[in-house]
Design a protein that fits this description.
Arc Repressor Mutant, subunit A, elongated, mainly alpha, 11 helices
Length: 181
C-alpha cells in the first residue's frame, strides 16, 4: 500500500490532486475566504505546504478573491439584514479577512446608508410591537439594533424619536399646529 492511499495527511503524489478536489467541493458549496479554505483543507488532513500552494494558485486564477468576497458580504449583510459596519467588520474578521479587505468592504457602506438602515429596522420593529407595553417595546427595539451592531446611543435616540412620533400621532396635532394654538 502506498503512503498516500491508506493514511490521511500522508504526503504523496496524489495529495495535491486530493487537495484540489476537496477545495473545489468546498468552493462549489459557497465562496470562501483564503483563511476559511485553508482551515477547511487542514481539517481534512491536507498538509500546510500543499494547502498554501493550492490557495496561491486559486488566487492567481480568481477562484479565491478575498477582496471581492468581503465587499459582497458587506453589501448583502447591510442591504438584506440591515447590519451596521461594526457587525459586518466583526463577521469579516471571524472569516479570516485581512484588515485591508475589511476596510475596502466597509467603505461601500456610507454613514447615511447606515443611518437609514437603522431607522428602517427600528421603525419596522416599533410598529410590529404596537400592542406591547412601552418598556418592553423599548427594550426589544434597542436589543434588535444592538444585535445588528448599532451602539446603544443610536438605538435609544431612534426609540425616543419613534416615541415622540407616536405622541404626536396620538394627539392628531402636528408640532407646527401645536405652536400656533
Amino acid at each position: 500500500m502506498r503512503a498516500s492511499e491508506g493514511t490521511f495527511g500522508a504526503t504523496g503524489p496524489d495529495e495535491p490532486e486530493r487537495a484540489r478536489q476537496i477545495a473545489l467541493r468546498i468552493l462549489d458549496a459557497a465562496p470562501r475566504s483564503a483563511a476559511q479554505l485553508r482551515e477547511a483543507l487542514l481539517a481534512r488532513d491536507v498538509t500546510e505546504a500543499v494547502a498554501d500552494e493550492l490557495i496561491a494558485r486559486y488566487r492567481e486564477v480568481g477562484l479565491v478573491d478575498d477582496s471581492g468576497l468581503a465587499r459582497m458580504i458587506a453589501r448583502t449583510r447591510h442591504a438584506e439584514r440591515g447590519q451596521s459596519r461594526r457587525a459586518i467588520a466583526q463577521e469579516l474578521r471571524s472569516k479570516g479577512f485581512v484588515a485591508e479587505d475589511i476596510a475596502l468592504a466597509l467603505a461601500e457602506v456610507s454613514d447615511d446608508d447606515e443611518s437609514l438602515a437603522a431607522e428602517a429596522l427600528a421603525a419596522k420593529r416599533w410598529s410590529a410591537l404596537a400592542d406591547v407595553p412601552r418598556e418592553a417595546r423599548v427594550r426589544r427595539v434597542v436589543a434588535l439594533l444592538g444585535r445588528k451592531g448599532y451602539p446603544p446611543g443610536v438605538a435609544f435616540d431612534l426609540v425616543r424619536r419613534l416615541e415622540r412620533a407616536d405622541i404626536w400621532e396620538d394627539r392628531e396635532v402636528g408640532p407646527a399646529e401645536e405652536e400656533v394654538t
